[in-house]
Design brief:
alpha+beta; 3-stranded antiparallel sheet; about 425 residues; Double Stranded RNA Binding Domain; 10 strands; hpI Integrase, Chain A
């Protein structure tokens, strides 16, 4: 084994072998040396025996990039770590094999879709939730943090990602037949943080990470959605819906909007509703899966009228079927926007209709607990094990639905009177 005091002159004098590689080891620091290959490349290395008795060799860096003195200083640090029981070669191997954020996100989606990662209430994560996670991952998380080693992420990295998403740095056109752009904003930015934090948490739970590297990152506070329609606005919407119906608007879309108002159901619930779930005589819909798991929800006679009047399409089980595919009609939001423009109403979403149902129920004197049951909310104190679709709850839903139907009809009647005058 060749030895010499390593300095610039001795390293410069190294002659490349015809094949393989040669080493010269420093006489001052045991285990510090330089390797020269047949191409003439010279690389500083350290060599040591780890705690398991295995001979290890770790590259420090190229001669020319590092001076001999710089390489010697690094060698002292690494060999000091060896003396403390560490294994720089194993650390380097882990670093090479560690997942970056791209790979960790792919692992999460694969495992979660296979049901091997559990979410709320220790149940497999719903496909709809994973679809939203995947959209945030593809649009925002991967472009901003994808190449970063997951273990090396910091709270500052995650909060900087949130700021970038909020400011529209990842804005781009939507794909998959959806119009418009994915623009980010505070709500999306906060949900991206939540998604990434959950992925890192699952990775720690499954042993891919020793620690959650960004635990404690702060999400932007969300704005609570409080918009609801007043009595006058419900009448205006009824008038606009009647006008739209007479002027060629999709009757299916209008029926979904009416159902949302008359039931307080979530948009996804109303759109996905299937005929076999609806029990007109019993006055309920048996949803096999909602945001709050399987639920039996009351439905009033006015909403049942809308449901039973919908035309069936052979092979499509949905109450509101798509005319061009096997699934449900999904362009409700666009129709609502057009109708609200006719009515002169701003900032109205399908969720506004849900809030409106709850608001009217409150004005009719029903308690908060009853309204929560009507809307299918989970409760900290009362679960569905104790809330049944009894006659009292059916009555509350019926009275609320009847009142909203009356207001819509009053609005439509105003349009008819205008036609008579004209």
């Amino acid at each position: 084994m060749a030895q010499a005091k390593l300095n610039k002159r001795t390293v410069d004098a190294l002659v490349p072998p015809k094949a393989g590689q040669d080493f010269i080891w420093d006489t001052e620091i045991k285990g510090f040396g330089v390797r020269v290959g047949s191409t003439g490349a010279k690389t500083f290395v350290i060599q040591y025996v780890n705690t398991e008795g295995r001979l290890r060799r770790v590259k420090i860096g190229r001669f020319g990039v590092f001076t001999v003195d710089q390489a010697r200083d690094l060698a002292k640090i690494k060999l000091g770590a060896v003396a403390a029981g560490e294994d720089p070669a194993e650390e380097a191997r882990r670093t090479r094999n560690e997942m970056n954020v791209d790979e960790l996100c792919d692992w999460y989606l694969t495992e979660a879709r296979a049901g091997r990662i559990l979410g709320r209430k220790n149940r497999p994560i719903k496909a709809s939730s994973l679809d939203m996670d995947e959209s945030r991952i593809r649009t925002h998380i991967k472009p901003l943090l994808g190449k970063r080693i997951a273990r090396h992420l910091t709270i500052a990295d995650v909060e900087a990602m949130q700021t970038d998403v909020m400011n529209g740095k990842t804005e781009k056109a939507r794909t998959g037949g959806r119009g418009g752009k994915a623009t980010g904003g505070p709500g999306v930015a906060a949900r991206c943080v939540g998604t990434l934090q959950a992925i890192l948490g699952h990775a720690k739970h499954k042993g891919l990470l020793v620690e959650h590297p960004t635990k404690g990152a702060k999400k932007l506070a969300g704005k609570k959605r409080t918009r609801r329609l007043s009595v006058a606005e419900i009448e205006a919407l009824g008038k606009a819906m009647a006008y739209a119906e007479h002027n060629g608007e999709s009757p299916t879309a209008l029926a979904v909007i009416r159902t949302l108002l008359l039931t307080g159901y979530r948009r996804e619930e109303a759109q996905a509703m299937q005929r076999t779930w609806v029990n007109p005589m019993g006055g309920f819909v048996a949803f096999p899966d909602t945001k709050g798991d399987a639920q039996i929800r009351a439905i009033g006679p006015e909403a049942i009228k809308v449901v039973v009047l919908q035309a069936e399409i052979a092979g499509n089980p949905h109450v509101f079927p798509s005319a061009t595919a096997d699934g449900p009609y999904t362009a409700v939001s666009a129709c609502l926007k057009r109708v609200c423009q006719l009515a002169g109403l701003a900032n109205v979403t399908p969720h506004t209709l849900r809030h409106t149902f709850g608001s009217i129920a409150g004005e009719l004197g029903f308690s908060e607990l009853t309204i929560r049951a009507m809307l299918g909310h989970a409760s900290q104190n009362v679960t569905q094990d104790y809330i049944h679709i009894d006659e009292a709850l059916k009555l509350a839903v019926r009275r609320t639905s009847d009142e909203i139907a009356r207001l819509l009809a009053q609005g439509a009647a105003k349009l008819d009177r205008m036609r008579l005058v004209a």
